[in-house]
From TrEMBL:
<dbReference type="GO" id="GO:0044010">
    <property type="term" value="P:single-species biofilm formation"/>
</dbReference>
<dbReference type="InterPro" id="IPR001173">
    <property type="entry name" value="Glyco_trans_2-like"/>
</dbReference>
<keyword id="KW-0808">Transferase</keyword>
<dbReference type="Pfam" id="PF00535">
    <property type="entry name" value="Glycos_transf_2"/>
</dbReference>
<protein>
    <submittedName>
        <fullName>Glycosyltransferase family 2 protein</fullName>
    </submittedName>
</protein>
<dbReference type="InterPro" id="IPR050834">
    <property type="entry name" value="Glycosyltransf_2"/>
</dbReference>
<dbReference type="GO" id="GO:0016740">
    <property type="term" value="F:transferase activity"/>
</dbReference>
<feature type="domain" description="Glycosyltransferase 2-like">
    <location>
        <begin position="10"/>
        <end position="146"/>
    </location>
</feature>
<dbReference type="InterPro" id="IPR029044">
    <property type="entry name" value="Nucleotide-diphossugar_trans"/>
</dbReference>
Length: 289
């Protein structure tokens, strides 16, 4: 069967100091049941051995290209890769993640058969230092404006991407994928979620231990920037979108206060003494259940 009539998928893999995971990500693409693709690795000024690893990986398959550039950040790296790509469809893939072997096939089938769909994705799975299913609600507006419902590695049409300004570099602390999805929504994009688990997101132990105060500051910045970037879209659903931020801050403060209070109660002497006194009675109650 000739392949020249089948659409090509450009898999864009930015990499910054993730050399130890890069081959696994690339291999998950090479293992696809749908083989009409190109892989573009962007070494974003890494200070580890990413350059050497990427250049060796390039020798595995003539569909793999490597770009070496100064460190410009994730948004700029993805944009560079997409600019250098030639596929009709785009799949961004972080260097420490991987995809299911059927992802491209299912995505291309859906996008080819459903002309109204612009973005395709499936269920997600955690792996690494945390395992299990990723609880992703189905795509819905306006829920998408308050929570990112689509992971970073969805497959999308180049035509819808070209209608946007690409990944926005003012999302400097993250959420650049969420920002792009909102940009696509502003251009009339339709999203489709498969029930198949198609994306594997690596969780690392150090990413689970965070400076809460610093994370809250980053979150506040990103929430404000997201609304500023898409103010007209937010206004379609929320007459005063900036009030969302104040409500979210209040909810977070209330939750933090409750968690602190709960911790203080559990650690209090009276709670521990009471638990010690009641423990034998709890054991007896269990025996007679």
């Amino acid at each position: 069967m000739k392949n020249f009539n089948l659409p090509k998928v450009s898999v864009i893999i930015p990499c910054y100091n993730q050399a130890q995971y890069l081959l696994e990500a690339v291999q998950s693409v090479l293992n696809q049941t749908y083989q009409i693709f190109e892989i573009i690795i962007i070494n974003d000024g890494s200070t580890d051995n990413t350059k050497e690893v990427a250049d060796r990986i390039k020798e595995l398959d003539d569909r793999i290209k490597v770009i070496h550039q100064a460190n410009l950040g994730l948004s700029a790296a993805r944009n560079s890769g997409i600019t250098a790509s030639t596929g009709q469809y785009i799949l961004p893939l972080d260097a420490d993640d991987k995809i299911d072997a059927k992802y491209l096939e299912l995505g291309i089938n859906c996008l080819s058969e459903k002309n109204t769909v612009d973005v395709f994705y499936g269920e997600g799975i955690f792996f690494g230092d945390k395992t299990g299913e990723w609880d992703l609600p189905d795509f819905e507006m306006p829920l998408m404006l308050t929570r990112n419902l689509v992971y970073c590695s969805a497959i999308f049409r180049r035509t819808i991407f070209d209608k946007t300004k690409g990944y926005n570099q003012n999302m400097k602390y993250g959420w650049e994928d969420w920002d792009l999805w909102l940009s696509m929504l502003e251009q009339g994009a339709r999203f489709y979620k498969s029930n198949e688990p198609l994306f594997y997101y690596r969780v690392k132990e150090k990413s689970m231990v965070k400076d809460i105060a610093n994370e809250n500051l980053k979150r506040q910045y990103l929430e404000q920037q997201l609304i500023v970037n898409h103010l007209d879209l937010y206004k379609q659903y929320f007459p005063e979108p900036l009030t969302i931020l104040r409500e979210l801050d209040t909810l977070r403060m209330e939750k933090a206060a409750f968690e602190k209070y709960k911790k203080e109660i559990y650690n209090s002497l009276s709670y521990r003494v009471g638990d010690f006194i009641l423990k034998p009675f709890k054991l007896i109650r269990q025996l007679f259940k």
